[in-house]
Amino acid sequence: MKATTPQRNAEEILKQRTELKNEVDAAIQKRLIKYHIKVDDVSLVKISFSPDFTKSIEQKQIAEQEAKQAEYEAIKASKQAEAEVNRAKGTATAQQLLKQSLNSELLQKQAIEKWDGKFPTMMGGNGVLPFVNIEPPKR
Protein backbone atom coordinates (compact mmCIF):
# COMPACT_ATOMS: atom_id res chain seq x y z
CA MET A 1 0.00 0.00 0.00
CA LYS A 2 2.78 2.38 0.91
CA ALA A 3 4.45 1.84 -2.45
CA THR A 4 1.38 2.54 -4.58
CA THR A 5 -0.76 5.09 -2.75
CA PRO A 6 1.81 7.93 -2.63
CA GLN A 7 1.77 8.01 -6.43
CA ARG A 8 -1.76 9.47 -6.31
CA ASN A 9 -3.36 12.35 -4.53
CA ALA A 10 -6.30 11.72 -2.20
CA GLU A 11 -8.89 12.61 -4.79
CA GLU A 12 -7.40 10.16 -7.29
CA ILE A 13 -7.36 7.45 -4.62
CA LEU A 14 -11.11 7.88 -4.16
CA LYS A 15 -11.89 8.15 -7.87
CA GLN A 16 -9.50 5.45 -9.13
CA ARG A 17 -10.09 2.73 -6.56
CA THR A 18 -10.09 -0.10 -9.08
CA GLU A 19 -6.82 0.96 -10.67
CA LEU A 20 -5.25 1.38 -7.23
CA LYS A 21 -6.48 -2.07 -6.17
CA ASN A 22 -4.95 -3.62 -9.32
CA GLU A 23 -1.63 -1.92 -8.65
CA VAL A 24 -1.62 -3.08 -5.01
CA ASP A 25 -2.48 -6.62 -6.20
CA ALA A 26 0.43 -6.65 -8.62
CA ALA A 27 2.88 -5.16 -6.10
CA ILE A 28 1.94 -7.66 -3.36
CA GLN A 29 2.12 -10.62 -5.73
CA LYS A 30 5.53 -9.50 -7.01
CA ARG A 31 6.85 -9.03 -3.50
CA LEU A 32 5.54 -12.30 -2.05
CA ILE A 33 6.34 -14.63 -4.93
CA LYS A 34 9.91 -15.02 -3.71
CA TYR A 35 8.46 -16.51 -0.48
CA HIS A 36 6.31 -18.88 -2.55
CA ILE A 37 3.16 -17.13 -1.42
CA LYS A 38 0.47 -16.64 -4.01
CA VAL A 39 -2.06 -13.90 -3.45
CA ASP A 40 -5.38 -14.40 -5.20
CA ASP A 41 -6.98 -11.09 -4.39
CA VAL A 42 -6.58 -7.94 -2.36
CA SER A 43 -9.53 -5.90 -1.17
CA LEU A 44 -9.35 -2.25 -0.35
CA VAL A 45 -12.07 -2.22 2.25
CA LYS A 46 -11.85 1.05 4.05
CA ILE A 47 -10.20 4.04 2.48
CA SER A 48 -11.20 7.06 4.47
CA PHE A 49 -10.26 10.68 4.94
CA SER A 50 -11.47 13.34 7.29
CA PRO A 51 -15.13 14.31 6.84
CA ASP A 52 -14.13 17.83 5.81
CA PHE A 53 -11.77 16.54 3.13
CA THR A 54 -14.34 14.06 1.82
CA LYS A 55 -16.96 16.82 1.72
CA SER A 56 -14.60 19.13 -0.21
CA ILE A 57 -13.98 16.40 -2.80
CA GLU A 58 -17.73 15.87 -3.18
CA GLN A 59 -18.27 19.62 -3.58
CA LYS A 60 -15.57 19.74 -6.24
CA GLN A 61 -17.21 16.89 -8.15
CA ILE A 62 -20.59 18.61 -7.89
CA ALA A 63 -19.08 21.86 -9.18
CA GLU A 64 -17.49 20.00 -12.10
CA GLN A 65 -20.83 18.40 -12.98
CA GLU A 66 -22.60 21.75 -12.76
CA ALA A 67 -19.94 23.29 -15.04
CA LYS A 68 -20.44 20.49 -17.56
CA GLN A 69 -24.22 20.98 -17.38
CA ALA A 70 -23.85 24.73 -17.93
CA GLU A 71 -21.56 24.09 -20.91
CA TYR A 72 -24.08 21.64 -22.37
CA GLU A 73 -26.91 24.15 -21.92
CA ALA A 74 -24.84 26.90 -23.57
CA ILE A 75 -24.13 24.67 -26.57
CA LYS A 76 -27.80 23.66 -26.73
CA ALA A 77 -28.92 27.32 -26.66
CA SER A 78 -26.41 28.18 -29.38
CA LYS A 79 -27.67 25.34 -31.59
CA GLN A 80 -31.29 26.37 -31.01
CA ALA A 81 -30.47 29.96 -31.96
CA GLU A 82 -28.70 28.74 -35.07
CA ALA A 83 -31.74 26.63 -35.98
CA GLU A 84 -34.02 29.65 -35.52
CA VAL A 85 -31.83 31.72 -37.83
CA ASN A 86 -31.88 28.95 -40.44
CA ARG A 87 -35.68 28.67 -40.19
CA ALA A 88 -36.02 32.44 -40.57
CA LYS A 89 -33.73 32.41 -43.61
CA GLY A 90 -35.76 29.58 -45.12
CA THR A 91 -39.02 31.42 -44.53
CA ALA A 92 -37.59 34.62 -46.02
CA THR A 93 -36.37 32.73 -49.10
CA ALA A 94 -39.74 31.01 -49.54
CA GLN A 95 -41.56 34.34 -49.23
CA GLN A 96 -39.22 35.96 -51.76
CA LEU A 97 -39.83 33.13 -54.23
CA LEU A 98 -43.58 33.40 -53.69
CA LYS A 99 -43.44 37.16 -54.19
CA GLN A 100 -41.59 36.71 -57.47
CA SER A 101 -44.15 34.20 -58.76
CA LEU A 102 -47.24 36.24 -57.85
CA ASN A 103 -49.12 38.06 -60.60
CA SER A 104 -52.67 39.20 -61.05
CA GLU A 105 -53.66 36.16 -63.10
CA LEU A 106 -52.38 33.75 -60.44
CA LEU A 107 -54.17 35.66 -57.67
CA GLN A 108 -57.38 35.66 -59.68
CA LYS A 109 -57.04 31.90 -60.31
CA GLN A 110 -56.55 31.27 -56.59
CA ALA A 111 -59.59 33.40 -55.76
CA ILE A 112 -61.73 31.41 -58.20
CA GLU A 113 -60.49 28.10 -56.80
CA LYS A 114 -61.38 29.17 -53.26
CA TRP A 115 -64.79 30.64 -54.17
CA ASP A 116 -67.68 28.42 -53.10
CA GLY A 117 -70.00 29.79 -55.82
CA LYS A 118 -72.12 31.86 -53.46
CA PHE A 119 -72.29 35.61 -53.28
CA PRO A 120 -72.43 37.25 -49.87
CA THR A 121 -75.94 37.50 -48.38
CA MET A 122 -75.06 40.60 -46.40
CA MET A 123 -72.91 43.45 -47.57
CA GLY A 124 -71.75 46.61 -45.95
CA GLY A 125 -70.57 49.88 -47.40
CA ASN A 126 -71.91 50.88 -50.83
CA GLY A 127 -73.42 47.47 -51.59
CA VAL A 128 -71.26 46.73 -54.62
CA LEU A 129 -70.62 43.07 -55.38
CA PRO A 130 -66.98 42.07 -55.74
CA PHE A 131 -65.91 41.83 -59.35
CA VAL A 132 -64.31 38.60 -60.42
CA ASN A 133 -63.18 38.43 -64.02
CA ILE A 134 -63.72 34.88 -65.24
CA GLU A 135 -62.58 35.47 -68.82
CA PRO A 136 -59.55 33.39 -69.73
CA PRO A 137 -56.32 35.38 -69.87
CA LYS A 138 -55.21 36.58 -73.31
CA ARG A 139 -52.13 34.95 -74.66
Q: Tell me, what's the shape? A: rod-shaped
Give the total of beta strands. Answer: 0
Give the helix tally.
Answer: 4
Low-confidence segments, given as residue ranges, are: none
Structural class: mainly alpha
Ends distance: 98 Å
Average per-residue pLDDT, rounded, comes to 82
In helices, the fraction of residues equals: 55-70%
The largest β sheet comes out as: none
The helix/strand series, from N terminus to C terminus, equals HHHH
Could you tell me the radius of gyration in angstroms? 39 Å
Strand content: under 5%
Short recap of the structure:
With 139 residues, the protein is mainly alpha-helical.
Give short descriptive properties of this protein.
single chain, 139 residues, mainly alpha, 4 helices, rod-shaped
What features would you describe in this structure?
This protein has 139 residues and is mainly alpha-helical. 60% of the residues lie in helices and 0% in strands. It is built from four helices and no strands. The model has no long low-confidence stretch (mean pLDDT 82).
